[in-house]
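User: Show me an example of a complex going from sequences to C-alpha cells.

Assistant: Sure. Here are the input components:
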Amino acid sequence: MDLMTDAGEDLVDAAELITEDELRLAARNHGMPLEALRYPITPVGLHYLLIHYDIPEVDEASFTLTIAGRVRRPTTLTLADLQTRPAAVAAVTMECAGNGRAHLKPRPISQPWLLGATGTAEWTGTPLRSLLEEAGLLDDAVEVVFTGLDHGVEKGVEQDYQRGLPLAEAMRTETLLAYAMNGQPLLPQHGFPLRLVVPGWYGMTNVKWLTRITVVAQPFAGYQQVRGYHLRTDDDDPGTPVTRMMPRALMVAPGIPDFLTRRRFVRPGSHRLRGRAWSGWAPIRAVDVSVDGGRTWAAGQLEAQPSGFAWCGWSCSWTASPGDHELCCRAIDESGRQQPLDIPWNVGGYANNAVQRIHVTVTDQPGDVLEPAV
Amino acid sequence: MDLMTDAGEDLVDAAELITEDELRLAARNHGMPLEALRYPITPVGLHYLLIHYDIPEVDEASFTLTIAGRVRRPTTLTLADLQTRPAAVAAVTMECAGNGRAHLKPRPISQPWLLGATGTAEWTGTPLRSLLEEAGLLDDAVEVVFTGLDHGVEKGVEQDYQRGLPLAEAMRTETLLAYAMNGQPLLPQHGFPLRLVVPGWYGMTNVKWLTRITVVAQPFAGYQQVRGYHLRTDDDDPGTPVTRMMPRALMVAPGIPDFLTRRRFVRPGSHRLRGRAWSGWAPIRAVDVSVDGGRTWAAGQLEAQPSGFAWCGWSCSWTASPGDHELCCRAIDESGRQQPLDIPWNVGGYANNAVQRIHVTVTDQPGDVLEPAV
C-alpha cells in the first residue's frame, strides 16, 4: 500500500517500516500502555495479551481438565472440582518473551513488541503440585506437558498450543492452575476457564485454555518447545531455550505526549520519575536511573517488593531543565543479573531486556515545538 | 531499522510497510480480535480502545463534574451525586471513526486500524437530558461541549480532549453519562470514573474521563471539532464533520489461522458463517454474504437486533469446497445506506466502511500448504 502523512505530502523512510504481517499481529496482541505502570496490579484489559491462534470458545459446563501420562491414577476434573480444592492467590508479573523485539536491528518478523508486553495480575487458583501428587508420579517422569484448546498452524505445523515444563518447576509450590484474575473469572482472552501460571517464567510457559496435563518420560519435542522460544545466533544454531524473565525496569514517561509521534513534553522544574522493575531469577536489588542517556546513573528509591514474583515500584527525583533529555532506567537483581546497555540480538528476537530510553523535551510551550520531520 | 523474516533470509516489500509512529499507536490502541464478534456483549478487555494522549490518573474521591456555560444554574456534582440519580442501562455498539484506515491507498498516517476498532458494551449511567433540564438551558444554547481529563499535544496544539455535540443530540433520551461498563465501574482505559455515551455516533464523540460540560451559544471550534474528524478530499477542503457510524457487517473468519500471516485454513464441508452488523443511522435491514469475492450474494439470516444501537447477529450456511475462496459480507440499514465495494478515500482516513474480504484456503491438510512468500 502507498503511504502518506496526515498532511498529505511526504513519503516515509522505508528503513523504519513495519510489515503488514506485523501490523495484523500488533492489532490483535495488546501491549500495556506504559502509564499503566502506575498500578501495582494491572487493571483488567490493560495486561498484555499474546494469542498465537484464535481465542477459543469454551463451554464452561462441558470443560474438563485431564491429568494423564506417567501417573498411577489418571484423572479428569471439572472446573467445579478444581474450584473446591485449596486455593492460593498470588500477584505475578508476566512478560512476553518477545517484549522489545521491535527494537532489534535487523528486526525479526513476528509480533512487533515495543516495551508493553507485560502486566501484573492477582491470580487465584489451585496449586498444581498437590494434583500431581494425588495422581501419583511414576519414577520415570521428567517433564509435564500442558495442552491448550487454542489451535492453529505455525511454520507449516498444525498444532494445539503445547509447552513442556521440567518436573521440578511443575512441582514448585507457587505453580498454579488459575481460574480467576484480579478476583474475577478469567476473561476469554486470558485463558477462560483455566490456565497455568508459573511465576518467574516468560509468558509462553503459562498455557491458556488449559485442558490436558501429560506427565512424560522424555523431554517434550513439540513445535513451541524445540522450534519456538529459543535463543539462536543463526538458523543453524540449536540455541538455548527461553525460560525465566530477565531483569527489566520500566518508567512511566513523564509529561504529556504528542498524539501521533508519542514525543514527550515535560514542564521545567521538579519531577518524580516512577516505574516498576522485575526479574524472574531473583528479587530486585536496585534500579539505577540516568537523565543523560546513560552517561551518569543515580540509585532509584525502591518500594517494598510485594512478593518475589511481582514487580517492585521505584522512583527518583529529577529537576528538569529546558532542552532535550534522554531518561533511562536499569534493573539489577539479587542474582547479579542486570540489564545491558546494548541490545542482545538473536534470530527469534527473544529476551531483549536492553535499558529503556525515553526522549523528552523540557519546555513551557509544548505546542510551539515543531513536530519532528517524518 | 533493518528487517528480516523469522527465517532470516528476506527483506520485505517496502510498499506494504507501516511506520514507527503507526506501530507505537497500534501497540497502545487495542483492536478487538474479530473472533470476539461471537459475543453479543464484548468481554471487558476486548472492546477496542483509542486513547489520544495518556490514560489519566483520576482520584474518585476528589473527582467532580461541572455543568456550566449557558445555563441558569451552573452546578458541580460528585460521582456519588450522579450515581444516586435515575439510572439507565443500554447495550451500545461503538466504533472508531478511523476503523479500516490501514486499508486505504495511499494510507493516511495515524492509528492504523484494520477492522477491529469496534465493540459492544452494556453501559450504565444517568441520562444527560435531565441534568441539562435541571441546570436550565438558556435560549441561546446551540451546542454542548464535553471536556475530558486527558491532555496532550496534537499538530502543535496543546489541549484537553474536547468535543462539541449539537443540543438536539445531547437532549436525546439515550445520551448517557456512564459510570459502569458491563456491570462494573469503568476501567481506567474506558474513562473512569465517567464518560459520555452517545448511541449511534462514532467513538470520538463519547468523551472519556468527562469532567466538564459547557453549554455554548456558538458552534465549538476546538481542535478535535474543526481540524480532526472531518471527511476531506484534500488539505484545502473544509470537509464535512464525521458524525454517526456508517453501516458495517463483520464476519468471524472461519477455520484456523497461521500464526504469523493470519492466513485462514478451513476444512471442506458444511460451515455456518457468522458475524454482526450495525449502523448509527438506522436498524440493520439486511446482511448479504458472498463466498466468491462479491460476484454473487445471498441473504444472511438476521437475529433479532437487541436494540437500535447494538449490533445485530447474522449467519449464513456455506459448503466449502477445496481451494481458495474470498468471503465477503455487506450490511444495508433501514435508511437505505449500504456498504460500498470500493474504499471511500479521504485525507484523514475516516469512515471507511468498505466490505470486509476474508481469503481462506479450504483444505484437509493446512500444515501442508506452503506459506505465502513474504
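The lines above are the inputs; the final block is the predicted structure for all two components together. Helices of chain A lie at 20-28, 79-83, 128-135, 167-170, 223-226.
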